[in-house]
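Give me structure tokens for this 66-residue protein.
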Amino acid sequence: MEDPAVAVGLAVHFAKISLTQGVALPDVIIKLLARRVEEGDPACVVVAEWLETAGLVNLRSRSASA
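Here you go.
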């Protein structure tokens, strides 16, 4: 999955599920988004910030531990 739009789409899709059903985001989705954030993709950064604000992920601690 080389297209950052795929990471954005999947993250938004699973975030909606997470928010409505109270379940965690799948780790594979978080890893996919985090990789694109580390690469500096602007859309992925915006989505990651939204997910952090919503309390669904904490990518800053993931990147600090990596």
